Amino acid sequence: MPEVTQQIEKEIAADSASGTSKTEVQPLDPKPAYLARLREIIDFAAIKKAGLRVVFDPLWGAARGYSDSLLRDAGVEVSTVHDYRDVLFGGHAPEPDDHLLDPMREKMRETKAHIGIATDGDADRFGIVDEDGTFLQPNYVIALLFDYLVESRGWKNGVGKSVATTNLINALARHHQVELHETPVGFKYLGELIKQDKIAIGGEESAGLSIRYHVPEKDGVLTGLMCCEMVAQRKQSLGRLLQDLFVKVGSFYPMRENFRLTPEVQAKFTKKLRLDPHGFAGHKVSEAVRKDGLKLVLDDGSWVCYRLSGTEPVVRVYSEAPSQQGLQKLSAAAKQWIFE
To answer: Residues 261-270: contacts with CB within 8 Å, 24+ apart?
Structure first.
Protein backbone atom coordinates (compact mmCIF):
# COMPACT_ATOMS: atom_id res chain seq x y z
CA MET A 1 0.00 0.00 0.00
CA PRO A 2 2.87 2.53 0.53
CA GLU A 3 3.54 2.39 -3.25
CA VAL A 4 -0.10 3.32 -3.96
CA THR A 5 0.06 6.22 -1.51
CA GLN A 6 3.27 7.49 -3.07
CA GLN A 7 1.74 7.30 -6.56
CA ILE A 8 -1.32 9.29 -5.44
CA GLU A 9 0.91 11.91 -3.85
CA LYS A 10 2.92 12.19 -7.10
CA GLU A 11 -0.27 12.67 -9.15
CA ILE A 12 -1.56 15.36 -6.78
CA ALA A 13 1.80 17.15 -6.96
CA ALA A 14 1.80 16.94 -10.76
CA ASP A 15 -1.78 18.26 -10.92
CA SER A 16 -0.84 21.17 -8.69
CA ALA A 17 2.17 22.02 -10.84
CA SER A 18 0.09 21.95 -14.05
CA GLY A 19 -2.85 23.83 -12.54
CA THR A 20 -5.25 20.91 -13.03
CA SER A 21 -6.67 18.41 -10.55
CA LYS A 22 -7.94 14.89 -11.00
CA THR A 23 -9.04 14.93 -7.37
CA GLU A 24 -11.48 17.82 -7.77
CA VAL A 25 -14.82 17.14 -6.11
CA GLN A 26 -17.60 16.81 -8.66
CA PRO A 27 -21.21 17.72 -7.80
CA LEU A 28 -23.72 14.88 -7.73
CA ASP A 29 -27.50 15.19 -7.76
CA PRO A 30 -28.98 11.76 -6.93
CA LYS A 31 -32.57 13.03 -6.96
CA PRO A 32 -33.44 12.31 -10.63
CA ALA A 33 -32.16 8.72 -10.47
CA TYR A 34 -33.85 8.14 -7.11
CA LEU A 35 -37.21 9.45 -8.32
CA ALA A 36 -36.92 7.41 -11.50
CA ARG A 37 -36.35 4.28 -9.44
CA LEU A 38 -39.39 4.98 -7.26
CA ARG A 39 -41.49 5.36 -10.41
CA GLU A 40 -40.41 1.81 -11.32
CA ILE A 41 -41.17 0.40 -7.86
CA ILE A 42 -44.48 2.13 -7.05
CA ASP A 43 -47.67 1.61 -9.09
CA PHE A 44 -48.64 5.27 -9.37
CA ALA A 45 -51.23 4.45 -12.04
CA ALA A 46 -53.12 2.31 -9.52
CA ILE A 47 -53.02 5.11 -6.95
CA LYS A 48 -54.45 7.56 -9.48
CA LYS A 49 -57.09 5.11 -10.73
CA ALA A 50 -58.34 4.53 -7.18
CA GLY A 51 -58.89 8.27 -6.75
CA LEU A 52 -56.75 8.28 -3.61
CA ARG A 53 -56.39 11.60 -1.82
CA VAL A 54 -53.12 11.96 0.08
CA VAL A 55 -51.60 14.43 2.55
CA PHE A 56 -47.82 14.53 2.89
CA ASP A 57 -45.82 16.01 5.78
CA PRO A 58 -42.02 16.18 5.26
CA LEU A 59 -41.67 17.97 8.62
CA TRP A 60 -39.55 20.72 7.02
CA GLY A 61 -36.96 18.10 6.12
CA ALA A 62 -35.06 16.43 3.32
CA ALA A 63 -38.13 14.83 1.67
CA ARG A 64 -39.60 18.17 0.56
CA GLY A 65 -40.38 17.89 -3.13
CA TYR A 66 -40.14 14.10 -3.24
CA SER A 67 -43.29 12.16 -2.26
CA ASP A 68 -45.70 14.95 -3.17
CA SER A 69 -43.98 15.69 -6.49
CA LEU A 70 -44.10 12.05 -7.54
CA LEU A 71 -47.79 11.76 -6.65
CA ARG A 72 -48.69 15.06 -8.29
CA ASP A 73 -46.83 14.18 -11.48
CA ALA A 74 -48.88 10.96 -11.61
CA GLY A 75 -52.14 12.93 -11.38
CA VAL A 76 -52.85 12.02 -7.76
CA GLU A 77 -54.58 14.58 -5.52
CA VAL A 78 -52.02 15.43 -2.84
CA SER A 79 -51.74 18.22 -0.27
CA THR A 80 -48.65 19.09 1.73
CA VAL A 81 -47.98 20.63 5.13
CA HIS A 82 -44.66 21.96 6.45
CA ASP A 83 -43.37 22.22 2.90
CA TYR A 84 -40.86 24.98 3.57
CA ARG A 85 -37.46 25.40 5.14
CA ASP A 86 -37.35 25.84 8.91
CA VAL A 87 -33.99 25.25 10.55
CA LEU A 88 -35.74 24.90 13.94
CA PHE A 89 -38.22 22.30 12.64
CA GLY A 90 -41.16 24.05 14.26
CA GLY A 91 -39.39 24.15 17.61
CA HIS A 92 -39.27 20.39 18.15
CA ALA A 93 -37.50 17.34 16.80
CA PRO A 94 -38.67 16.47 13.26
CA GLU A 95 -40.02 13.08 14.29
CA PRO A 96 -43.01 11.54 12.46
CA ASP A 97 -44.59 10.50 15.75
CA ASP A 98 -48.28 10.42 16.65
CA HIS A 99 -48.29 13.54 18.85
CA LEU A 100 -46.53 15.69 16.20
CA LEU A 101 -48.80 14.93 13.24
CA ASP A 102 -51.90 16.97 14.14
CA PRO A 103 -51.33 19.52 11.33
CA MET A 104 -51.35 16.63 8.86
CA ARG A 105 -54.56 15.33 10.43
CA GLU A 106 -56.17 18.75 10.08
CA LYS A 107 -55.28 18.88 6.40
CA MET A 108 -56.60 15.33 5.97
CA ARG A 109 -59.96 16.34 7.43
CA GLU A 110 -60.04 19.43 5.23
CA THR A 111 -59.29 17.49 2.04
CA LYS A 112 -61.11 14.26 3.03
CA ALA A 113 -57.86 12.39 2.44
CA HIS A 114 -57.66 8.59 2.54
CA ILE A 115 -54.14 8.50 3.99
CA GLY A 116 -51.47 10.73 5.50
CA ILE A 117 -47.79 9.99 5.00
CA ALA A 118 -44.93 11.70 6.86
CA THR A 119 -41.15 11.47 6.96
CA ASP A 120 -38.63 12.59 9.56
CA GLY A 121 -35.96 15.25 9.05
CA ASP A 122 -33.61 13.12 6.96
CA ALA A 123 -36.46 11.12 5.40
CA ASP A 124 -35.31 7.66 6.45
CA ARG A 125 -38.21 7.05 8.87
CA PHE A 126 -41.95 7.21 8.33
CA GLY A 127 -45.23 8.05 10.03
CA ILE A 128 -48.55 6.83 8.63
CA VAL A 129 -52.04 8.09 9.52
CA ASP A 130 -55.27 6.36 8.50
CA GLU A 131 -58.27 8.15 6.98
CA ASP A 132 -59.97 8.45 10.39
CA GLY A 133 -56.90 10.15 11.92
CA THR A 134 -55.54 7.04 13.64
CA PHE A 135 -51.76 6.80 13.75
CA LEU A 136 -50.61 3.38 12.61
CA GLN A 137 -47.77 1.93 14.67
CA PRO A 138 -44.64 1.25 12.56
CA ASN A 139 -44.89 -2.39 13.71
CA TYR A 140 -48.22 -2.67 11.91
CA VAL A 141 -47.04 -0.83 8.80
CA ILE A 142 -44.20 -3.31 8.36
CA ALA A 143 -46.54 -6.28 8.78
CA LEU A 144 -49.13 -4.87 6.36
CA LEU A 145 -46.55 -4.17 3.67
CA PHE A 146 -44.96 -7.60 4.12
CA ASP A 147 -48.34 -9.26 3.58
CA TYR A 148 -49.06 -6.99 0.62
CA LEU A 149 -45.72 -7.62 -1.11
CA VAL A 150 -46.09 -11.38 -0.78
CA GLU A 151 -49.58 -11.33 -2.27
CA SER A 152 -49.11 -8.59 -4.88
CA ARG A 153 -45.52 -9.20 -6.02
CA GLY A 154 -45.21 -12.88 -5.16
CA TRP A 155 -42.00 -12.16 -3.23
CA LYS A 156 -41.45 -15.07 -0.86
CA ASN A 157 -37.67 -15.10 -0.55
CA GLY A 158 -37.75 -14.04 3.11
CA VAL A 159 -38.63 -11.35 5.63
CA GLY A 160 -36.39 -9.57 8.13
CA LYS A 161 -37.16 -7.86 11.44
CA SER A 162 -35.28 -6.82 14.53
CA VAL A 163 -35.71 -8.78 17.74
CA ALA A 164 -37.74 -5.87 19.19
CA THR A 165 -40.24 -5.77 16.31
CA THR A 166 -43.72 -7.31 16.43
CA ASN A 167 -44.18 -11.07 16.24
CA LEU A 168 -47.12 -10.41 13.94
CA ILE A 169 -44.43 -10.68 11.27
CA ASN A 170 -43.42 -14.11 12.63
CA ALA A 171 -47.03 -15.26 12.35
CA LEU A 172 -47.33 -13.93 8.80
CA ALA A 173 -44.07 -15.63 7.83
CA ARG A 174 -45.50 -18.96 8.98
CA HIS A 175 -48.80 -18.25 7.22
CA HIS A 176 -47.09 -17.44 3.90
CA GLN A 177 -44.39 -20.09 4.37
CA VAL A 178 -41.65 -17.47 4.13
CA GLU A 179 -38.28 -17.72 5.90
CA LEU A 180 -37.96 -15.35 8.86
CA HIS A 181 -34.70 -13.58 9.75
CA GLU A 182 -34.67 -12.03 13.23
CA THR A 183 -31.72 -9.70 13.79
CA PRO A 184 -30.27 -7.49 16.52
CA VAL A 185 -31.57 -3.92 16.58
CA GLY A 186 -29.95 -1.78 13.87
CA PHE A 187 -30.93 -1.51 10.22
CA LYS A 188 -27.43 -2.42 9.08
CA TYR A 189 -28.28 -6.07 9.77
CA LEU A 190 -31.44 -5.89 7.63
CA GLY A 191 -29.61 -3.93 4.94
CA GLU A 192 -27.10 -6.75 4.60
CA LEU A 193 -29.95 -9.24 4.08
CA ILE A 194 -31.44 -6.97 1.39
CA LYS A 195 -28.06 -6.75 -0.37
CA GLN A 196 -27.91 -10.56 -0.42
CA ASP A 197 -31.54 -10.75 -1.65
CA LYS A 198 -32.44 -12.96 1.31
CA ILE A 199 -35.50 -10.89 2.21
CA ALA A 200 -38.30 -9.17 0.33
CA ILE A 201 -38.76 -6.62 3.08
CA GLY A 202 -37.01 -5.69 6.30
CA GLY A 203 -38.27 -3.46 9.07
CA GLU A 204 -37.77 -2.18 12.60
CA GLU A 205 -40.36 -0.99 15.09
CA SER A 206 -38.56 2.37 15.19
CA ALA A 207 -40.02 3.15 11.73
CA GLY A 208 -37.25 1.91 9.48
CA LEU A 209 -38.11 -0.13 6.38
CA SER A 210 -36.83 -1.04 2.94
CA ILE A 211 -37.49 -3.71 0.30
CA ARG A 212 -35.61 -5.84 -2.21
CA TYR A 213 -34.37 -4.25 -5.44
CA HIS A 214 -33.99 -0.96 -3.57
CA VAL A 215 -31.34 0.72 -1.42
CA PRO A 216 -30.32 -1.49 1.54
CA GLU A 217 -31.11 1.32 3.96
CA LYS A 218 -34.34 2.51 5.59
CA ASP A 219 -36.40 4.80 3.36
CA GLY A 220 -39.36 6.79 4.67
CA VAL A 221 -40.33 8.12 1.24
CA LEU A 222 -40.57 4.60 -0.19
CA THR A 223 -42.63 3.37 2.77
CA GLY A 224 -45.23 6.12 2.53
CA LEU A 225 -45.69 5.61 -1.20
CA MET A 226 -45.93 1.83 -0.77
CA CYS A 227 -48.71 2.39 1.77
CA CYS A 228 -50.55 4.58 -0.77
CA GLU A 229 -50.30 1.82 -3.36
CA MET A 230 -51.48 -0.82 -0.90
CA VAL A 231 -54.56 1.19 0.14
CA ALA A 232 -55.36 1.93 -3.52
CA GLN A 233 -54.99 -1.67 -4.66
CA ARG A 234 -56.79 -3.28 -1.74
CA LYS A 235 -59.51 -0.62 -1.66
CA GLN A 236 -59.73 -0.62 2.12
CA SER A 237 -58.56 1.64 4.93
CA LEU A 238 -55.41 0.79 6.83
CA GLY A 239 -57.45 0.02 9.95
CA ARG A 240 -59.59 -2.45 8.06
CA LEU A 241 -56.51 -4.07 6.51
CA LEU A 242 -55.01 -4.51 9.96
CA GLN A 243 -58.17 -6.15 11.26
CA ASP A 244 -58.03 -8.53 8.29
CA LEU A 245 -54.47 -9.47 9.30
CA PHE A 246 -55.64 -10.19 12.85
CA VAL A 247 -58.35 -12.46 11.47
CA LYS A 248 -55.77 -14.20 9.31
CA VAL A 249 -53.07 -14.91 11.91
CA GLY A 250 -54.24 -13.62 15.31
CA SER A 251 -54.03 -10.30 17.16
CA PHE A 252 -50.83 -8.63 18.35
CA TYR A 253 -50.57 -5.51 20.52
CA PRO A 254 -47.04 -4.11 20.91
CA MET A 255 -45.69 -1.35 23.16
CA ARG A 256 -42.35 0.34 23.82
CA GLU A 257 -41.44 2.10 27.07
CA ASN A 258 -38.28 3.72 28.45
CA PHE A 259 -37.32 3.67 32.12
CA ARG A 260 -34.54 5.76 33.67
CA LEU A 261 -32.41 3.91 36.21
CA THR A 262 -30.45 5.01 39.24
CA PRO A 263 -26.86 3.68 39.38
CA GLU A 264 -27.89 1.19 42.08
CA VAL A 265 -30.89 -0.11 40.14
CA GLN A 266 -28.89 -0.30 36.90
CA ALA A 267 -26.12 -2.35 38.52
CA LYS A 268 -28.63 -4.77 40.04
CA PHE A 269 -30.69 -5.02 36.87
CA THR A 270 -27.64 -5.62 34.67
CA LYS A 271 -26.86 -8.71 36.76
CA LYS A 272 -30.47 -9.86 36.52
CA LEU A 273 -30.34 -9.71 32.71
CA ARG A 274 -27.73 -12.50 32.75
CA LEU A 275 -30.27 -14.91 34.27
CA ASP A 276 -32.85 -16.96 32.39
CA PRO A 277 -36.11 -16.84 34.40
CA HIS A 278 -38.38 -19.88 34.13
CA GLY A 279 -41.54 -17.86 34.71
CA PHE A 280 -42.68 -14.29 34.04
CA ALA A 281 -45.98 -12.43 34.59
CA GLY A 282 -47.70 -15.66 35.60
CA HIS A 283 -46.59 -17.55 32.48
CA LYS A 284 -43.90 -20.07 31.68
CA VAL A 285 -40.93 -18.71 29.72
CA SER A 286 -40.73 -20.83 26.58
CA GLU A 287 -37.63 -19.17 25.14
CA ALA A 288 -34.96 -16.66 26.17
CA VAL A 289 -33.51 -14.84 23.15
CA ARG A 290 -30.21 -12.97 23.52
CA LYS A 291 -29.62 -11.57 20.04
CA ASP A 292 -29.87 -8.08 21.50
CA GLY A 293 -30.56 -7.62 25.20
CA LEU A 294 -32.92 -10.19 26.72
CA LYS A 295 -36.19 -11.21 25.06
CA LEU A 296 -38.46 -13.52 27.04
CA VAL A 297 -41.05 -15.35 24.94
CA LEU A 298 -43.91 -16.67 27.06
CA ASP A 299 -46.09 -19.74 26.59
CA ASP A 300 -49.13 -17.68 25.50
CA GLY A 301 -47.21 -16.04 22.65
CA SER A 302 -46.65 -12.76 24.48
CA TRP A 303 -43.11 -11.48 25.04
CA VAL A 304 -41.02 -8.78 26.66
CA CYS A 305 -37.59 -7.56 25.57
CA TYR A 306 -35.13 -5.52 27.66
CA ARG A 307 -32.33 -3.49 26.07
CA LEU A 308 -30.00 -1.28 28.09
CA SER A 309 -28.96 1.97 26.45
CA GLY A 310 -25.26 2.29 25.78
CA THR A 311 -25.28 6.08 26.15
CA GLU A 312 -27.57 6.86 29.11
CA PRO A 313 -28.94 5.14 32.26
CA VAL A 314 -32.08 3.95 30.49
CA VAL A 315 -33.59 0.54 29.78
CA ARG A 316 -35.84 0.19 26.75
CA VAL A 317 -38.67 -2.26 27.28
CA TYR A 318 -40.61 -3.77 24.38
CA SER A 319 -43.74 -5.77 25.19
CA GLU A 320 -46.36 -7.55 23.10
CA ALA A 321 -49.48 -9.52 23.96
CA PRO A 322 -52.49 -10.96 22.08
CA SER A 323 -54.92 -8.53 23.76
CA GLN A 324 -54.94 -4.97 25.06
CA GLN A 325 -55.75 -6.22 28.56
CA GLY A 326 -52.93 -8.73 28.40
CA LEU A 327 -50.55 -6.02 27.23
CA GLN A 328 -51.35 -3.82 30.23
CA LYS A 329 -50.68 -6.71 32.63
CA LEU A 330 -47.47 -7.61 30.83
CA SER A 331 -46.28 -3.99 30.85
CA ALA A 332 -46.87 -3.73 34.59
CA ALA A 333 -44.97 -6.98 35.20
CA ALA A 334 -42.12 -5.84 32.94
CA LYS A 335 -41.72 -2.64 34.96
CA GLN A 336 -41.93 -4.48 38.28
CA TRP A 337 -39.19 -6.89 37.18
CA ILE A 338 -36.82 -3.95 36.68
CA PHE A 339 -37.32 -2.31 40.04
CA GLU A 340 -38.13 -5.19 42.39
So the answer is: 261/313, 261/314, 261/315, 261/338, 262/313, 263/313, 265/338, 265/339, 266/308, 266/313, 266/315, 269/308, 269/315, 269/338, 270/308
- Helix (H) / strand (E) element for 256: namely strand 253-260
Q: Is the whole model's pTM more than 0.85, yes or no? A: yes
Q: How many of the other CB atoms lie within 10 Å of CB of 259? A: 16
CATH class, domain 32-249, is alpha beta
* CA pair distance 165, 307, nearest whole angstrom: 13
Q: How many CB atoms lie within 10 A of CB 272?
A: 13
Q: Do the beta carbons of residue 223 and residue 126 sit within 8 Å?
A: yes
Q: What is the pLDDT along the chain (340 residues), one digit of tens a residue?
A: 444 445 545 655 655 565 555 567 888 899 999 999 999 999 999 999 999 999 999 999 999 999 999 999 999 999 999 999 999 999 999 999 999 999 999 999 999 999 999 999 999 999 999 999 999 999 999 999 999 999 999 999 999 999 999 999 999 999 999 999 999 999 999 999 999 999 999 999 999 999 999 999 999 999 999 999 999 999 999 999 999 999 999 999 999 999 999 999 999 999 999 988 999 999 999 999 999 999 999 999 999 999 999 899 999 999 999 999 999 999 999 999 999 8
Domains 32-249 and 253-339 in one fold: no
Residues 6+ positions from 158 with CB-CB distance below 8 Å? 178, 179, 180, 181, 193, 198, 199, 200
Write the Ramachandran bin of 34: left for phi over 0, alpha for psi from -120 to 50, otherwise beta.
Answer: alpha
For domain 253-339, give the fold: TATA-Binding Protein (3.30.310)
Check residue 236 and give left, alpha or beta (phi > 0: left; psi -120 to 50: alpha).
beta
How many DSSP H helices and E strands does the chain contain?
12, 15
Residue 224 phi, psi (nearest 5): -60, -45
Contact between residue 252 and residue 167 where contact means Cβ atoms under 8 Å apart? yes
Domain positions in the chain: 32-249, 253-339
Dist CA 285 CA 278 (whole Å)? 5
